[in-house]
Amino acid sequence: MTRETFPSNSQQTPTENSILEHGLDMLTRDGVRGFTVECLAQDLAMSKKTIYKFFPTKEILLQNIFKYITTVLINHFERILKKDINPLDKFYTALDEVIKILNRVSISRISELKARYPKIWRDIEAFRLARREDFLSIFVDGQKQGFIRRDIDIELTATLFMNIVNSVFQPEFFLANQVGPRDVMFTFREIFLRGIITDKGLKHIEDNL
């Protein structure tokens, strides 16, 4: 089934996109260990040879599926940054989009991915760190509009924010503490944001969020 929220990549053929879309469905359903090219081919009613024509190995296929996910998130972030809304609303909305993606896959399956495909996991971490620029843009606007304190280094704030996310949002942390990404993100978001906002910013989030 084609997922309408996942935009096609103009550099890919319709066949490639259908493979990636359904591959993502299978990953969220079966995990990395249960994901096989043979099952994917059966579900799509195509030969394994066709899939291997586009993605020569299972690891390359998985890499492209996760690139597909990151493309979705980048598109979401770009739309959020263009919205004519309060910067604090952008901050909350951006994190909500991340949570939606995280909630689709169990932590045990994420742990499996990290253990079996460390290169893919490093790519995911690099992608997360690169989102610093998106959050920096939000923080800069928030500071200009008086919602974020002017006595803090906003560049350093954005760097700290993304590095803390990257360090904490690891499968080992969730499994060891028996907590889910949504609860952790909610708590971290509240602690972090309330430490950098002004009274004006606090009033906005208490009145509107």
Task: Please tag this protein with its features.
mainly alpha, 12 helices, Tetracycline Repressor, domain 2, disordered N terminus, elongated, 209 residues
Characterization of the model:
With 209 residues, the chain is mainly α. The protein has a domain at 66-208: Tetracycline Repressor, domain 2 (Orthogonal Bundle), CATH 1.10.357. The chain is 77% helix and 0% strand. The chain is built from twelve helices and no strands. Helix 1 (14-34) crosses helix 6 (107-116) and helix 5 (87-102) runs antiparallel to helix 8.
Query: How many strands appear in the DSSP assignment?
Result: 0
Structural class: mainly alpha
The general outline is elongated
CATH topology-level fold name of the domain at 66-208: Tetracycline Repressor, domain 2
What about the largest sheet? Answer: none
Radius of gyration: 19 Å
CATH-scheme architecture of the domain at 66-208:
Orthogonal Bundle
State the low-pLDDT regions, or none: 1-8
Q: What is the helix content?
A: over 70%
Count of DSSP H/I helices: 12
* Mean pLDDT score: 90
What is the H-and-E element order? HHHHHHHHHHHH
CATH class term of the domain at 66-208: Mainly Alpha
Question: Approximately how much beta-strand content do the residues carry?
Answer: under 5%
